Amino acid sequence: MEIAPVNTGICQTEEHEKQVEGMSTETFAHIYGAYYKRVYKYICYRINNHYTAEEICSHVFEMVISKYSSFSPDKSNFEVWLFAIARNAVTDYFRSQKKRISFSLDSILNMVLPKSSPEDIVIRDDNHQALFQALAKLSDKERNIIAMKYAAGLKNAEIAELLGVSGSNIGVVLYRCLKKLQMELQKGGFRYEE
Fold it and tell me: Which of 13, 43, 103, 163 has its CA 20 to 30 A from that of 92?
């Protein structure tokens, strides 16, 4: 009896081996360990869906493996290159959705904040709702810059390199965005409690 070969996806083709040649397992493990959380937070911050963010993040790291040989330290640093891939993956996701999804920090806040009592959750959700409404009034570019700065933890110079503008321009945009958010929150009756 002859057994037919089954494509399990475990065996690599020669073409795939050539693509991975430029990156060792150790290199990938180091990159993944160093950048996974930041890339995931950035994606989560942009799309507000934990499961989809995991899928997109996986896709980003697959792209890192397949495109690693095209990375050139002369053109930009690795972090900028990586977040350009992440930003493009998020853009592709939005294109595939063919509708505008409201911006939210909900999933990131759930990851960062400790578990609270039901009363605390109601109060926090009211405060977060005001923040989400204020964020929705910003442009896509402004929300993207905020996501890169506060979710991904990129420096202004790195964001500037990704977007093709000056670092001082990013600083000005961030300052203005935060002022807009503050004004919107105050209009909505939000009061910061220390």
Answer: 13
CB-based contacts of 184, cutoff 8 Å, min separation 6: 133, 134, 137
Q: What is the pLDDT of residues 124-147, one digit of tens each?
A: 555 567 777 777 788 888 888 888
- pLDDT of residue 186 exceeding 90: no
CA dihedral 92, 133, 182, 37 (to 10 degrees): -40
Residues 6+ positions from 181 with CB-CB distance below 8 Å? 131, 134, 135, 138
Nearest to 68 by CA among 37, 35, 40, 27: 27
CB 178 within 8 A of CB 131: no
Positive or negative: CA dihedral 64, 23, 40, 42? negative
